[in-house]
Amino acid sequence: MSLINYITQIQFEAGAVSLLPAECARMGIQRPLIVTDAGVRAAGVLDTVLNTLPGGAELPVFDRTPSNPNETAVREAVQMYRQHECDGIIAVGGGSSIDLAKGVAVCATHEGPLKSFAVIEGGLARITAATAPLIAIPTTAGTGSEVGRGAILILDDGRKVGVISPYVVPKVAICDPQLTLGLPAGLTAATGMDAIAHCLETFMAPAFNPPADGIALDGLWRAWRHIERATREPSDLEARSNMMSASLQGALAFQKGLGCVHSLSHALGGINPRLHHGTLNAIFLPAVIRFNRQARTVQDEQKLERMAQAMGLASGDQIEQVILNMTRALGLPTGLGELGVTPDLFPRIIQGALADHSHRTNPREASAEDYQALLEESM
Q1: How many angstroms separate the CA atoms of 321 and 136, rounded?
Q2: Confidence category of residue 169, pLDDT binned at 50, 70, 90
Q3: Which of 47, 249, 261, 315 has the most CB atoms within 10 Å of its CB?
Q4: Strands annotated E in 84-218
Q5: CA–CA gap between residue 274 and residue 280 (Å, rounded)
Q6: Are the C-beta atoms of residues 69 and 131 closer than 8 Å to each other?
């Protein structure tokens, strides 16, 4: 049975961050913990957010979010949440800060280690309505975590897992594209390709969910037409707005599931947390789309043509090559070898990919041998 469920209130416009005090009042949040990272603070974006709140300068701030959030950071932020007797969380940053905030929202209000809430450990049933309320303010346009029902976190044992539940969906997403105007070109490109990967993989996922399909295709249309402008003209508010919309649209379609692109990038990201998730997705996309093409069902062939149409292509046969071309044009790596990945890591990557929650929702089931071939093709 397919789940069709949209529950986040989204405030989307330039200047929307000014609505934060009203949203805190509506949610009954009086003592929020702010979760962010050092880069957001250094760029002055955190001050912009805090200045909207009465007494914002005195609020507790956890700004040590790693680029790939982990269990250690969750524990440290939970300690701060409890120490200051907080009653909610405001996440300010990219997907890493928002995902970390989701982990804190669960672990600060439930007993047990983070591992016990991972979906592959049966954690879905353990997460309850006691989860702390979360307001998400994205400062990048890629993960869409501000509307997603899951968080991707690295456990102490090195596994990169999903903590997934309707209760971890932020109660409010404040999407202000002005907050992304200072994003560096490389990060704009990598997060933008992340959004494109989300739109493509959710659309290819086999679950029946026409509303999600429509949202994903429109997000793909927006991202594909604006990613180069947003990367090369960082002050272009129209391009930034379309990328932010594409990002949240890809995540609104997450309820369909993802696929082998993400099972591979989650596994490799767990092994080497320094690798950027969006860059990995861009590298894996051509090989996985080619793999999925071999399913050869009428429905899958129609999906390829609809994806091509959204991307402005004459034929679905061109998709893999134009993604490779776009990745190269944006200045991103196009092969794992450029990132220092070596074949001796393949067995660990394959083991992680087979256990990942995204593995089960790919339109074509992948074996260990298939993953080996996908990795070789992506080198």
Answers
A1: 35
A2: very high
A3: 261
A4: 88-93, 134-138, 150-154, 160-164, 172-175
A5: 11
A6: no
